Amino acid sequence: MTTDIPARAPQSGTTVRELTDIADLEEVSELFRALWREPGGATPMSAHVLRALRLSGNYVAGAFDPSGRLVGASAGWAAPPARGELHSHVTGVVAGLQGRGIGRALKLHQRDWARAHGFSSITWTFDPLVRRNATFNLRVLGARAEAYLENLYGAMEDELNAGGESDRLLVRWELGGDAGGAAVDETASPGRRLVATPEDIEVLRRSDPGEALGWRSRLRRELEPLLSSGGRILGFTQGGDYVVEEAG
């Protein structure tokens, strides 16, 4: 079933809609292929998998600019019914167009779709080293980090992730209120830690792979024990630090 839930990014006039036609799904698959650049020209999600997701009532949507060009897309599926959550697996925006509100328009559309289909939250994972994603997920959307997952997907060979282990933060976006992170004290204090991230890990992986691997080890060593012992991430600073409240 397709639900008519339009969403727009005012800065660019982007329109988001659900996708069902195989031609549209092939275009989404190609967009993902171009973004992740996997060996042999593979794509994170093929058109036939996207088609199966839509056939089974799951979420696939695309963002289109005023000329009708696909500039972003997102796909996810339902968790077991008792959990009441949609898991968002892949979301991407055409290279060079990040920061124009397209990703936010996709997530707001996904939120409204999830609400309309009876979900109470959306979950997804992201690389905690990628500062712009942490900013978007924690500051812009107000999602909550739930767990540090070490090497979640195993070795990944795409250009964005190759050369290191696939540590991820699992986040949950509760759908009861409006989007947006709460203001947080950005200073360290007793019981509160600041955990740094690199300015641009994607550039660093190309220019200095050894230093990039060092950042993975440092962040894992600092952040994983804090969360596994019951601590929680309160937010993300403008300077690129996780604000973590220690357990107890």
Give an overview of the whole structure.
- The protein is an alpha+beta fold and 248 residues long.
- It has a single domain, classed as Gcn5-related N-acetyltransferase (GNAT) (Aminopeptidase, 3-Layer(aba) Sandwich).
- 31% of the residues lie in helices and 27% in strands.
- The protein has 6 helices and 11 strands.
- It has helices at 22-36, 47-55, 102-116, 131-140, 201-207, 209-228; strands at residues 7-9, 14-18, 59-64, 70-78, 85-93, 121-126, 144-149, 168-174, 192-196, 232-236, 241-245.
- α1 (22-36) packs across α2 and α5 (201-207) crosses α6.
- It starts with 6 loop residues before the first strand and ends with a strand.
- Mean pLDDT is 91; it is low at 6-10.
In short:
The protein has a single domain (7-184), classed as Aminopeptidase (3-Layer(aba) Sandwich). The chain is α+β, with helices and mostly antiparallel strands. It has helices spanning 22-36, 47-55, 102-116, 131-140, 201-207, 209-228; strands at 7-9, 14-18, 59-64, 70-78, 85-93, 121-126, 144-149, 168-174, 192-196, 232-236, 241-245.
List the strand order in the largest sheet: 1-2-3-4-5-6-8-7
Q: How many domain regions? A: 1
Relative helix content = 25-40%
Q: How many individual β-strands?
A: 11
Distance between the termini: 47 Å
Helices, by number, come to: 6
Average pLDDT, all residues: 91
- Pick out the low-confidence regions: 6-10
Secondary-structure-based class equals alpha+beta
Task: Give the radius of gyration.
Answer: 18 Å
Reported CATH architecture: 3-Layer(aba) Sandwich
The CATH topology, please?
Aminopeptidase
Shape: globular
* Element pattern in H and E: EEHHEEEHEHEEEHHEE
Report the sheet-strand fraction. Answer: 25-35%
CATH class: Alpha Beta
Largest sheet: 8 strands, mixed
